[in-house]
Structures are given as C-alpha cells and as structure tokens.
Amino acid sequence: MVFVLDTFFQPLAPTTPRRARILLNKGKAAIFRRYPFTIILKRVVKNPNTGKRRLKIDPGSKTTGIAIVNQETGEVEFAAELQHRGHQIKSDLESRRVIRRSRRSRKTRYRKPRFLNRTKPKGWLAPSLMSRVYNITTWVKRLRNLCPIQAISMELVRFDMQKMQNPEIDGIEYQQGELFGYEVREYLLEKWGRKCAYCGAENTPLEVEHIIPKVRGGSNRVSNLTLACVPCNLKKGSQTALEFGYPLIQAQAKKPLRDAAAVNATRWKLYERLQAIGLPVEVGTGGRTKFNRRQQDLPKTHWLDAACVGESTPQDLKVGAIKPLVITAKGYGNRQMCGTDKYGFPIRHRTRQKKSFGFQTGDMVRAIIPKGKYTGTHIGRVTIRNRPSFRLNRLDVHPKYLQALHKADGYSYQGGAPIPLHA
C-alpha cells in the first residue's frame, strides 16, 4: 500500500499503487517521500475515515520486524525489516579505545584517562544497545506521521519456563527457581549418568566442563556444562565439543546468549519509550507470536512475526504478495577528520566539505549510464568524493548521470522478496 497525506500533512488511509498512479498522472498528488513511498494530495480532506490500524513490532538483536495491520480487514498494509548496526558501533568503539590507549603509550600529546571520573546514569545502556532502541522509536514516529496508527503491539517477553512447568508456582518459590537448593554438580551427575561425557569413564574424579569454552563465547548456564574426567578435560583444552570429536554433545549446547541478552536488555527500555509516544501499547509473548503464525500457516520471517504479535492478531491475516521494505541503519558518518589503518597510523584525510555537485554521502540516487561496460540503470546509496567520480554499488559514476531519489537520513533502502505463499 502507498501512504497518503493531505495538503496539511495529515495522514490518511493508505491507498493502492494503482490509485496512487492515477492521482499522480492527473496532477492531483505529488511524491512526498520515496522510502517508504508516500504521496501528498493537493487538497484538504475534512473528516477522513482512517479506520483502525495497529503498528506491530517484533524486536530483534540484528533485525526487527515491523508491520502495519488493518484491524477491520485483517490486511497487512505495510511491512519492513529494520536491520540494526549495534555490532558495528561496538566494533568502532573498541577500535577508538585501542587507538586512544596506544596514543597514551607513544611519545605524543598526553590524554588523561577519563574512565575514573564519570558515572553512568540510572537505566544506562551501552551505545550499541541504545542504537537499537533509537532505530525502532525513530521509525515508529515516522510511520505515525505517514499513517493513521491508533495502537502499537510489541513482543515483550519470551517463554516463562517456570510458569509453563508449574502454573501454580508463586512467591519465593518462583523467585528462587527450580534449581534453588539443588547443587549444579549434583544436577550434572544426574543428567550425565555419573560418568565422563566423552570417554564414559566411571568411578573416577569428574570435573565440571564447558561444552563451548568461555574463551570461545560459551556461558556458565547449565545447558553448556557437562562432566569430564581429568585426562579428557586436559586433552580437550579450549576446543569445543564438536572440534573434540563429539558433535552430539555439541548439539546439546544452545547458541551463545549474546543476541538474546541484547534483546532482553533493550526490550523494557523500548517499551517505556513506546509508552511515552502516547498510543496504547499491547505486549505479547514469543509463544503467542509463534502460535498465531502457525494458525495462519505462514513461513517464519521477521515481518510476519511482527504481524502475528499479540492477541489482537486477526483470525484471517491477509498478507498477499507483499515485498517488505528492507531498512538498514547506516548512521550519519563520523567526525573523524583523519582516517587510520588498523594500527592507528593516518592513511587519508577528509575534507570539511560535506556536499559535492549537490550530493552527499548517503543519498539514495538513480544512475542512468548511457554507454560503456555498465550501461543501464543503477539505484543505490552514493558515496561522494572530491573529484567528479562517485561510488555507487561498487561502480565509479560521474555525478552528471545521477538523479536524487531520497536525501540521506541515516538509512539505506531496498525491496525485499515476497513470501512463498502456499498453493
């Protein structure tokens, strides 16, 4: 669907692409925004019938699913997958830290350490985590300005295992958990049959051993622990169970909790920020999302999970042949005037000029190349240079062939693939 605004920027009910083309061809509307595609009418619409639409969000560590669902018809009118850049931010901060510390050890200007005279405010999250929250709230506000959204749904929690095993669990028993008062070692002895998980040795001293070593990203959770005799533990060293030749034991270890921890750390912060927007916020569990998706017989994608969040999901969800908009967070660049290599030595200098030939880095452009090896039309995010040779999709393009589509806003856009619908 195409978003529609009236001449006073009031969001109206989305329309079909066919209807939007008719309005544009007749001169009754103009293109307001390319990504997501939005038109603006050249007249005022009084008392519009906006219907009931709900914005649904499935937060993720790397990709967040977004969907706008018409509660009256059950139709998914907009879908997007927002790709975060938290890992890049973490890597950039670590690189900056290394360069600064190495500068202190060299014979250069002394930079006094600041890590001892700063305090973190209450509710502080690392920049790599807060970037996820900022990305989602930014797009919630943008979509609210383009579409009449009356409510928000988001996936807040995953499964509650203790409640699933014992629905009556309550009070201090719920807080302490089922393993409270039961030593982890005794639990492992029961689980692994009081013998070495690798060689099967019995009646010998056993040690608690990590299936995925901590130096390789493993954790201390019970599912990543096993029992091993002293010779096997020494021989295994820093290898994983798979590398040590025991893939079945390796299969019992779940994936590292880094992504899950990132989502858990940001979920409540996101919930608070969504509540501050002023719309009613419905929350749901991951189990409910999966149940709704299975009931609709839909494949697993980020945006379909978002469309199935919460109890407000219509019984007959109409997804059609939607191609989700893939939104990738790119940031607005940095203020570093001198580029360095991995060792911290300067290799290039940047100019203070931000624009060149009317373009700036991050603009979405269309390049129509009339001849040569790369003849044709190319669309993408441009990188400017001081000379008239810009980078576009790994191509060198002269700015005279470029047409601006969308000004830089910290994100790049491309169309996703439609879901494979069942016959």
Q: How would you characterize the overall build of this protein?
A:
This protein is of the alpha+beta class and 423 residues long. Helices cover 28% and strands 26% of the residues. It has eleven helices and 22 strands. It has helices at residues 17-25, 86-105, 127-146, 161-165, 171-176, 184-191, 230-236, 247-252, 258-277, 286-296, 302-307, and strands spanning 2-5, 11-15, 29-33, 38-41, 53-58, 63-70, 76-83, 151-157, 206-210, 225-229, 281-285, 325-329, 338-340, 346-349, 355-356, 359-360, 364-369, 376-383, 390-392, 395-397, 402-406, 411-415. The strands form six sheets. It has a seven-stranded mixed sheet with strand order 11-8-5-6-7-12-22. It has a five-stranded antiparallel sheet with strand order 20-19-18-17-21, with no helix packed on it. It has a four-stranded mixed sheet with strand order 2-1-4-3, with helices on both faces. It is globular and about 85 Å long.
Largest sheet: 7 strands, mixed
Q: Unreliable stretches, pLDDT < 50, 5 or more residues?
A: 159-165, 178-183
Strand content: 25-35%
| Share of helix, binned | 25-40%
CATH level-four homologous superfamily name of the largest domain = Ribonuclease H-like superfamily/Ribonuclease H
Please give the domain count: 4
In one word, what is the shape? globular
Mean pLDDT over the full residue set = 83
Structural class comes to: alpha+beta
